[in-house]
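Morning. Coffee machine broken again, so started the prediction first thing and wrote up yesterday's gels while waiting. Chain of 201 residues, entered below exactly as on the submission form.
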Amino acid sequence: MKFIITIITCATVFIQACNTPTGQDTSNAPHNIAARDSLLITSHSIGLAALGQTIGDLKQSYKGCTFSKQPLLKYGVESEGKGLLVSRGKEDLLFVWTIRDLKDDDKLNCIMALSNKFHTAGSISPGMTVGALAKHYPQMTVHKSLDFPNIEFFTDDNTNITFAFYSKDSTSVGKYTDNIEPTKVIDTTKTITCIDIIDNK
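Came back before lunch.
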């Protein structure tokens, strides 16, 4: 999938990527930066980052932001490789990774929204409580990661958007009899750590 950048001024790209949302619906324009809401999370994009987009294009879309390599393990990916953290000042915006080695022509395989400025069409953002999320998904169940016991997640099957919860202690969102079967939510005070999309093709 090729990510096509609309030719606009660098100043406009910077404003969209690192400051003000466009307020436009992006659901039918996954590859058009000018048409996409710079803060919207969809099944194929988060802000100006899209699945299949190259690292080089991502850097152009987020000019003015910093890019630092971070271990994938830190973000719940069972791999010794590294991903790319996108930050603006002291604020972490996105974490992305590819199936190769983060060269400029490598394509994004997974995108994680870390900042609460990003939101789904239903206004769900990182930092929102599980209780608030459950109002959108009354029948939701959560899974525990097989590789990371402190990570739980819920995936919207209609959009393939995943909401992940990282616990810093022994408490959890659900109550598990094993690590395979999903469970109902028991702790609604936990918060969404990140919102993820992944290319499973």
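The first strand starts at residue 40 and ends at 41. Going to sketch it on the whiteboard this afternoon.
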